[in-house]
Amino acid sequence: MKKTQIILSVFWILNLLSSCGVTSEKKEISIKWVDNLTGDFSFNACWSYPEGIYKNEFGQLICDGICPPQIYDMMDKNGKIYKDSLKAFYKLIDTTHLFHSIKSDAWTYEWDGTYYITAERINEDTVLCSTQCNAATHSSLNLIISKNYVTPTIVLIGINADFGTETYNCKSGKMIIDKNLWNEGILKAEFDFEFYNNESSDKMYWKGNIYVKIETNQTAQ
Known about the structure:
Shape: globular
Mean pLDDT: 88
Largest sheet: 10 strands, mixed
């Protein structure tokens, strides 16, 4: 899942560097670097199962949504997994504990929250970040962190978007990053961004805290 999200992040951001669906220009925000960023980052100890995995009334983890078709032959009519099928069942579904990497609040289109953000270093100076979409959230916060600046955008790939994909550029904001952890390959940050809203007068914003390991693209090594 993380690998897929990183690939999507790179695709979206590099595509947005050449074109976008809004008239406002992209805005670089100066990053404030601190030696020890304080605040509530306890969300990093919380975790969730992958989307579509939940406990049934029998206390068993099962899949609901896009699932391997074989699993349905391993359950009785009440949805209980047969005892002799448990081992085979859990070889087919992913019950990984996914630790949260972002806690945020936002007003944007088709957004119902997200727990995950990826960070990938593509060269010595640039790290690309992207929040994960899910069944209820179709807006992704995308960040290009380059040297002492961050360029934030919101990318909407939604069921109600007129042109399939819509991009909202940053109007103003701030970002604070823990410099010591950054040097260790971890993005610990606090951010608060406002974005241009071309559809209405409603204030579009995204703010919160991030704590995530920075993955390294093999071509950047």
